[in-house]
Amino acid sequence: VDRALDLERSSSAEAMKAYALALADFGEALRRWPGHPDAWLGRGRAHLNIARFRRREAQDPAEALKAALADFSEGVRIAATYSEAWEGRGSVRMEMSRQAGRTGADPEPIVRAALADFEEAVRRNPSDSHALLGRATARGNLGEFAFAHGRDAVPDFRAAIADFDASIVLKPDGAEARALRAAVRSNLAKLRMRDDPAEAEELFRSAVADFTESGRLDPARADTWVDLAVTRLNWSQLVVSRGEDPVPSLQAAIEAASTALAKDCRLSRALQVRAGAHEELAKLFAHRPDEARL
Asked: Which pLDDT tens digit goes with each residue over 203-259?
């Protein structure tokens, strides 16, 4: 089991090979000790990471996700006191919700099931930073669903931010938590621009700070810079509504999108955001030709 756990934690470029070895070891461990909860959870985690790897490689992760869900569910059955079991199953369901969205199925019920798992994990262990991060992510997704269906998304976004805060207190060097918190802050800022511009301003400012710190903690994560560019672009709308100059915000959006593309030239969303910022600048400079600096 120890060797399998070491392999399960592997994050090298040879992940698939390492996870295949991990699955073999976990399988042998379970053949010998079928009641060993760590082996069930370890194999579930390996299946989950294989599913994520396949998704990133544009392969079908459904089989690995099904296996991961079965393993974590067995872990919940035999070790219900383990917060890791509930957190793991919630993480599988969140990954399943992403897959559902891609296939046209409704992801919201899956996210709600994941939220219930994360709730139980936090109840079992309030200091489980991974469970808090999972619950925050689920709540943020539910806020997006609420907004898309014309419901009040603010409570879900606020609850998500509170969970991100708690997770970051427990794990201050978590780049993912800061990037996700920044995205929720940016979404909430867009909702608050009309009713409370001052709050929206602070939320945008905090989101930029979070994205910047996340980028420092994990420089290779290109998506962070795309999301920063989107936030800068949205912030420029608030600046315009106050009668102020949006040029610095738009230029900052272009810079962030360019940084994302330098890290990963395949990011079509970064190109779209940069194009949008350039278009807004062009409109401004068309009315102020003496200030054109494209």
From this structure: 999 999 999 999 999 999 999 999 999 999 999 999 999 999 999 999 999 999 999
Q: Give which of 206, 260, 267, 263 is closest to 231, Cα–Cα.
A: 206
Residue with tokens 């459904």: 62
Tokens standing for 151? 């419901």
Distance CA 48, CA 46 (A): 5
What would the two tokens of residue 286 be? Answer: 């068309």
Where are the alpha helices (H) located in 174-221, listed in sequence order? 175-192, 197-217
- Distance CA(108)–CA(98), nearest Å, equals 10
pLDDT in tens, 86-132: 999 999 999 999 999 888 899 999 999 999 999 999 999 999 999 99
Distances (CA, A) of 58 to 12, 22, 54, 99, 146: 19, 23, 6, 11, 28
Q: 200 is written with which tokens? A: 């929206």
Look up residue 107 and give its two tokens: 């992801």
For 267, other C-beta atoms within 10 Å of its C-beta total: 18
